[in-house]
């Protein structure tokens, strides 16, 4: 595969595409193949349900998921997030379309190949943990390995490392029901990591947790990712979570993908009023980065600011210097651009969008 | 007018011929296959006789000790173990030891048979809606049809004896374990099953690693009911030649021996209570990990 992924952000990162989803449709109902025609002819989710009694799960989804990055899929309840992620390991069969992983069509796989794919190449973390209640923490963490045919003892030895890594050392012999939600999801994470699969599918993995615990789990995940570089597909309905951990974000509404891009991009250039409304309450100064508002330049005067500095920090530095502008430097300290105080302030100011449709109808 | 007051029945001669035809063809069937079927059940008979002899011939203190150990393993409760010991001592003291051992033997074999046949059948039912809708009415019939009705063909085929009795007990007692196995598997948390699928579990790994373990409390409730129902059948089974506590009850009915009937009846009830308590406790312990509680 030499498909190359180019985000539309200001700084293009090149990365290999790991998962390619093309023209994916999913319709729930008795005769999806006839219903799909109505969708092509422009039926919306609501009209398909009202007139034809079918539920539109996904409509014409095209998504390139880059290797070793965190792809977030975001949307409100019922927008089709779970349906989408379950197509990647084919827990759900599509009505139409393609899912290609590393150049191989997942939908064309035989049952045996598919089982192999699920055992070795992908693993999954679930919203309600989905642990086996009759197995201990150690046995649960080793579950994926035992499914591969590894003996219970060896599997537990191998899984031990991941139990320790998620901070559950000492709880090996507890049963899931004896643990708090946060701890149970750590077991879920250890179970998913233990098989060393390259692809990690996380369906609202942290949504059932208290806010503080959720932030903890996000930290654990980011920390693990900086070391493991897996291809992660992360579903959430929480924008802050999406912005915090996503390298890429896709937004779904009523089964349709309405915008894809990196977080900076979505905030600076929301595709429509729905998304503008969605992002209106976030702290733009903290989320937006210097690199998103700089102009390219080889040399610049003023304080030196890192590309990945948040704008709120950059503003402080700019304000305390007399220049009103600063030099943007990359990781090695080389100047790559220039940032104007005015541009930074404009980016932070909430765009005026009177008359947007409210998020909750 | 006559049409409305007299039901338009089939002609008498026709009806007689109809019944005769059925009887004759079944008799024919049992003549041809009776022996084969009897041979088929030979190992079962052998096992039943062996167990019965073992229980009767073993020294009674050893039998009581073994039963108490089993009660302890099942219930982990000294109260139940003590109650069991006292119950068996009293039963023996009132001269019902041998009959109790015979009943114990047939109940054990019947329960074992029901488990061996019933659990796989329940698994099949849970796997396919077609099997479920085919088997459910059969189970309904087995539970509601008067036992005497199916005793007739069984006796015609196999004569009077232990095996027909055993079959009669099993027909009556197997439905709950089949039903509850099916139900238990169908009630298994869909998310957990999905997790098993997501990690690439095959059919066997799903069944033995997830479905059966999670359905175990229900399956166990089925076993418990099966035991209770087979105990309820001992009296009827004794009518076709099964020894045990049912036989004296039968004698008591025909001769109006109140005390004999009462004592043996109470012995059956006592066995039922012991089985029930022990298996309930065991079922509870099986589920302990579901509710947090003690460290496993
Ligand atoms: N098996 C099914 N049969 C019929 N409709 C379904 C089925 N599964 C999902 N749907 C419908 O498809 C749509 C998308 O569901 P999905 O579970 O993917 O949403 P979601 O974005 O994950 O929502 P949530 O945040 O509530 O989990 C919903 O309208 C849902 O009712
Ligand atoms: Mg969902």
Q: What percentage of the residues of chain B does DSSP assign to strands (E)?
A: under 5%
**Number of helical segments with 4 or more residues of chain B:** 15
| Unreliable runs of chain B | none
Determine the oligomeric state from the structure.
heterodimer
Identify the most extensive interface between protein chains: A-B, 33 and 25 residues
Number of separate structural domains of chain B:
2
Counting DSSP E segments of at least 2 residues, the number of strands of chain B comes to: 0
Largest sheet report of chain B:
none
What CATH first level of the largest domain in chain B would be assigned?
A: Mainly Alpha
Overall spatial form of chain B: globular
Query: Roughly what is the average pLDDT of chain A, rounded to an integer?
Result: 89
- Supply the CATH class of the largest domain in chain A: Alpha Beta
> Major sheet of chain A, described briefly?
6 strands, mixed
Q: Please state the CA-atom Rg of chain A, rounded to the nearest Å.
A: 22 Å
Q: Please trace the helix and strand order of chain B, writing H or E for each element.
A: HHHHHHHHHHHHHHH
- Average per-residue pLDDT of chain B, rounded, comes to 90
Beta strands of chain A, count:
15
The CATH fourth-level homologous superfamily of the largest domain in chain B = MetI-like
CATH topology name of the largest domain in chain B: MetI-like fold
Q: Helical content of chain B, roughly? A: over 70%
């Amino acid at each position: 595969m030499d498909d190359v992924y180019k985000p539309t952000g200001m700084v293009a990162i090149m990365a290999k595409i790991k998962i390619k989803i093309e023209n994916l449709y999913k319709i729930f109902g008795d005769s999806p193949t006839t219903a799909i025609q109505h969708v092509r002819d422009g039926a919306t989710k609501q009209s398909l349900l009202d007139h034809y009694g079918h539920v539109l799960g996904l409509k014409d989804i095209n998504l390139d998921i880059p290797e070793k990055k965190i792809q977030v899929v975001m949307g409100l309840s019922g927008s089709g997030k779970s349906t989408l992620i379950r197509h990647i390991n084919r827990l759900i069969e599509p009505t139409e379309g393609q899912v290609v992983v590393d150049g191989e069509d997942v939908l064309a796989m035989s049952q045996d190949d598919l089982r192999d794919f699920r055992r070795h190449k992908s693993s999954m973390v679930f919203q309600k943990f989905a642990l086996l209640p009759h197995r201990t923490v150690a046995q649960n963490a080793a579950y994926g390995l035992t499914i591969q045919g590894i003996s219970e003892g060896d599997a537990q030895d191998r899984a031990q490392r991941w139990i320790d890594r998620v901070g559950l050392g000492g709880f090996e012999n507890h049963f899931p029901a004896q643990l708090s939600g946060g701890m149970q999801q750590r077991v879920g994470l250890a179970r998913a990591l233990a098989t060393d699969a390259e692809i990690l599918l996380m369906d609202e993995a942290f949504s059932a947790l208290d806010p503080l615990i959720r932030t903890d789990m996000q930290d654990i995940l980011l920390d693990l990712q900086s070391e493991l570089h897996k291809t992660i597909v992360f579903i959430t309905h929480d924008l802050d979570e999406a912005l915090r951990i996503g390298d890429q974000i896709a937004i779904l509404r009523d089964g349709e993908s309405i915008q894809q891009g990196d977080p900076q991009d979505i905030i600076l250039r929301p595709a429509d009023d729905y998304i503008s409304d969605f992002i209106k309450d976030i702290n733009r100064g903290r989320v937006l980065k210097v690199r998103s508002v700089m102009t390219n330049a080889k040399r610049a005067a003023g304080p030196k600011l890192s590309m990945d500095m948040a704008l709120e920090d950059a503003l402080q530095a700019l304000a305390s210097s007399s220049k009103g502008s600063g030099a943007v430097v990359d990781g090695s300290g080389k100047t790559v651009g220039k940032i104007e105080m005015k541009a930074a302030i404009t980016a932070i100011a909430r765009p005026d969008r009177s008359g947007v449709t409210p998020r909750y109808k | 007018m006559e049409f409305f007051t007299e039901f338009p029945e089939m002609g008498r001669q026709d009806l007689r011929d109809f019944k005769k035809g059925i009887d004759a063809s079944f008799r024919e069937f049992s003549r041809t296959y009776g022996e084969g079927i009897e041979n088929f059940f030979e190992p079962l008979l052998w096992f039943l006789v062996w167990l019965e002899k073992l229980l009767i011939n073993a020294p009674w203190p050893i039998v009581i000790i073994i039963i108490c150990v089993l009660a302890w393993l099942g219930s982990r409760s000294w109260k139940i173990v003590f109650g069991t010991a006292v119950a068996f001592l009293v039963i023996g003291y009132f001269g019902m030891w041998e009959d109790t051992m015979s009943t114990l033997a047939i109940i054990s074999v019947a329960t074992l048979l029901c488990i061996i046949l019933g659990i796989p059948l329940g698994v099949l039912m849970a796997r396919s809606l077609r099997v479920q809708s085919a088997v459910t009415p059969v189970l309904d019939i087995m539970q509601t049809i008067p036992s005497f009705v199916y005793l007739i063909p069984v006796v015609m085929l196999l004569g009077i004896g232990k095996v027909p009795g055993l079959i009669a007990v099993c027909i009556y007692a197997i439905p709950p374990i089949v039903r509850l196995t099916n139900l238990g598997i169908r009630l298994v948390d869909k998310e957990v099953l999905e997790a098993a699928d997501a990690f690439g579990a095959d059919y066997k790994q799903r069944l033995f690693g997830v479905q059966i373990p999670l359905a175990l409390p229900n399956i166990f409730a089925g076993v418990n009911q099966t035991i209770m129902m087979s105990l309820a059948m001992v009296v009827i089974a004794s009518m076709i030649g099964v020894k045990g506590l049912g036989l004296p009850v039968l004698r008591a009915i025909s001769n109006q021996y109140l005390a004999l009937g009462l004592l043996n009846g109470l012995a059956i009830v006592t066995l039922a209570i012991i089985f029930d308590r022990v298996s309930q406790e065991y079922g509870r312990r099986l589920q302990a990990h579901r509710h947090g509680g003690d460290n496993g």
